[in-house]
């Protein structure tokens, strides 16, 4: 069993790490479990892993295991700030066993080569186990700093009397006192109780994953209890960064998703091995014209399984009746959306893949749509600009492109290769592209000011679609909407019962045609960070599904 001791040079923090195999980069998702114990040493960690059969569990569930060494005084007596610093350092650093700094590019982002050399534990699926004083600190974290803590298993424990976030956290409490149980019942909004799989489950009818598990026949954590908690609490739950403290959301059961896997496949004919997942609806009835097609491009350093879990587009496709494809960037890390000639030709890959899917499945060629997240949102825009004759609509999420990441840089279409080529295509035929774009109010370029990536992007698309470009406030000027240029029409919507506090400010923009078409929409999801909220993709789909790309290049709108 390969167990690594990692020491962080900046502050001497230490943690033991276990990785589920030798291959760190795959198209599937890795989760993590952090165990807080009183005296983490190589001997005690190995002993605990053996007693709880954690190596087997880690390989089965693809779990990265992290065992931080407590600060002086231990988890129970060391100052909270010191314990929190050690915990945060270990969470941020569990992606690789050494402490060598990652090489970074001019934007300050780790290079592709650096990212390919690391593991990729996602922040939305980090789980916490505590025993002894470690249980006390695990419960304290769940109460005070729940962001990035998807669920907690604690044996005993007395949380510290600190200011609490009052935010839902799924927990399994072993021998917890009534005050601890009462806190989690309150914040999880529970209103029902049942017995399931050896647990009393107290949960919320509105969001059943906001739950407390109480073991029926166990008063200590052992291998059987840990497995039961992993199956019934950890694996079903994730916590995306879609509110200030994160939200309790369902995970995807990969084995039930019904994907067709194309792994390191060379059939596209460009001499490269490519990977993608395809989902074809099993229950929905295929329309007479064939299925619509939605291509979703993952974020930088993500992969198809992570993209599927974030967006849940294939689940929407099962309900609404469309085929979903999740490709993996050619370099197995990100997308060459800027069409840099020194990098992989992802523009060619995406075009070949769309053509392959169109030739291989009964698809309505008038209804091909593209979307993506972050770096993948940039790639979706590139595909739409290069091939507007194929694409009926674009509904991308959280694209900090084009321009200076986190800063201000004025650009025109001549500065950005995909936009330059897109505008050149318009000289052949005046294409229009329906756009629904979603961004979060806790993102790096919000509020939106002149020369930010958001202003560059929406004004380029407005010009593309013959929409008047209104001035965006500069830094220091009044910005009444926070969103930059005011919409021709503005709406506020609360589209989800599971999270009634989620709300969107939608700025709609209309063309200068006689019939004034709504072809650009800027949807701000308030309190969302760099992540995909429950309704982000669905709201975009609801907009673009009305559009058809006709053979000559024109758009047709079909009201449903």
Low-confidence stretches: none
Principal-axes geometry comes out as: globular
Q: Which structural class fits the helix and strand makeup?
A: alpha/beta
Please give the radius of gyration in angstroms: 24 Å
Mind telling me the CATH superfamily name of the largest domain? Alpha/Beta hydrolase fold, catalytic domain
Structural description of this entry:
This protein is of the alpha/beta class. The protein folds into two domains: 3-99 and 114-182 and 224-239, Alpha/Beta hydrolase fold, catalytic domain (Rossmann fold, 3-Layer(aba) Sandwich), CATH 3.40.50.1820; 260-557, Rossmann fold. The chain has 15 helices and 24 strands. The strands form five sheets. Strands 1-2-4-3-5-6-7-10-9-8 form a ten-stranded mixed sheet, with helices on both faces. Strands 13-14-16-15-17-18 form a six-stranded mixed sheet, with helices on both faces. A hairpin with an 8-residue loop joins β13 (259-265) and β14 (274-279). α11 (346-360) crosses α12 (375-386) and α12 (375-386) packs parallel to α13. The longest helix has 15 residues, at 346-360. It is globular and about 70 Å long. The mean pLDDT is 96.
Name some characteristics of this structure.
560 residues, alpha/beta, Rossmann fold, 10-stranded mixed β-sheet, 6-stranded mixed β-sheet, 15 helices, globular
Short description:
This protein has 560 residues and is of the alpha/beta class. It is built from 15 helices and 24 strands.
């Amino acid at each position: 069993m390969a167990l690594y001791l990692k020491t962080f040079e900046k502050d001497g923090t230490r943690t033991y790490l276990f990785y589920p195999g030798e291959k760190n980069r795959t198209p599937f998702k890795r989760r993590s479990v952090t165990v807080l114990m009183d005296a983490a040493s190589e001997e005690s960690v190995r002993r605990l892993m053996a007693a709880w059969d954690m190596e087997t569990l880690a390989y089965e569930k693809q779990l990265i295991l992290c065992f931080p060494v407590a600060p002086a005084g231990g988890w129970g007596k060391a100052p909270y700030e010191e314990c929190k610093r050690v915990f945060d350092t270990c969470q941020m650093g569990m992606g690789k066993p050494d402490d060598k700094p990652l090489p970074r590019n001019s934007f300050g982002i780790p290079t592709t080569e650096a990212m390919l050399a690391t593991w990729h534990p996602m922040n939305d699926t980090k789980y916490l186990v505590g025993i002894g004083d470690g249980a006390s600190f695990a419960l304290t974290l769940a109460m005070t700093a729940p962001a990035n803590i998807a669920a907690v298993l604690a044996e005993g424990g007395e949380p510290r009397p600190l200011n609490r976030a009052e935010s839902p956290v799924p927990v399994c409490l072993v021998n917890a006192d009534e005050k601890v149980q009462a806190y989690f019942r309150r914040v999880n909004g529970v209103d029902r109780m049942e017995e399931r799989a050896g647990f009393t489950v107290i949960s919320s009818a509105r969001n059943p994953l906001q739950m407390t598990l109480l073991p029926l026949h166990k008063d200590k954590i052992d291998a059987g209890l840990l497995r039961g908690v992993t199956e019934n609490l950890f694996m079903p739950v994730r916590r995306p960064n879609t509110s200030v403290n994160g939200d309790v959301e369902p995970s995807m059961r990969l084995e039930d998703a019904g994907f067709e896997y194309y792994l390191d496949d060379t059939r596209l004919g460009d001499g490269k091995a490519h990977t993608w997942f395809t989902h074809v609806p099993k229950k929905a009835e295929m329309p007479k014209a064939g299925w619509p097609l939605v291509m979703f491009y993952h974020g930088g350093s993500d992969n198809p399984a992570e993209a599927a879990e974030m967006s849940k587009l294939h689940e929407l496709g099962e309900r609404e009746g469309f085929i979903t494809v999740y490709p993996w960037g050619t370099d197995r890390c990100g997308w060459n959306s800027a069409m840099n000639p020194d990098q992989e030709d992802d523009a060619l890959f995406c075009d070949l893949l769309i053509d392959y899917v169109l030739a291989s499945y009964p698809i309505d060629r008038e209804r091909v749509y593209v979307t993506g997240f972050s770096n993948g949102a940039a790639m979706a825009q590139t595909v739409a600009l290069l091939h507007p004759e194929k694409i009926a609509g674009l509904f991308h999420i959280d694209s900090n492109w084009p321009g200076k990441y986190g800063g201000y840089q004025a650009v025109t279409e001549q500065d950005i290769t995909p936009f330059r080529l897109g505008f050149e295509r318009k000289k052949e035929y005046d294409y229009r592209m329906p756009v629904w774009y979603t961004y979060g109010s806790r993102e790096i370029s919000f509020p939106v000011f002149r020369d930010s990536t958001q202003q560059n992007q929406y004004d380029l698309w407005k010009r593309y679609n013959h929409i008047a470009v209104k001035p965006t406030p500069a830094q220091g000027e009044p910005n009444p909407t926070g969103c930059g240029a005011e919409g021709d029409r503005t709406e506020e919507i609360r589209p989800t019962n599971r999270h009634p506090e989620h709300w969107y400010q939608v700025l709609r923009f209309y063309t200068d045609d006689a019939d004034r078409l709504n072809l650009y929409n800027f949807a701000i999801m308030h309190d969302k960070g760099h992540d995909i909220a429950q309704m982000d993709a669905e709201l975009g789909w609801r907009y673009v599904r009305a559009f058809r790309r006709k053979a000559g290049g024109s758009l047709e709108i079909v009201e449903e």
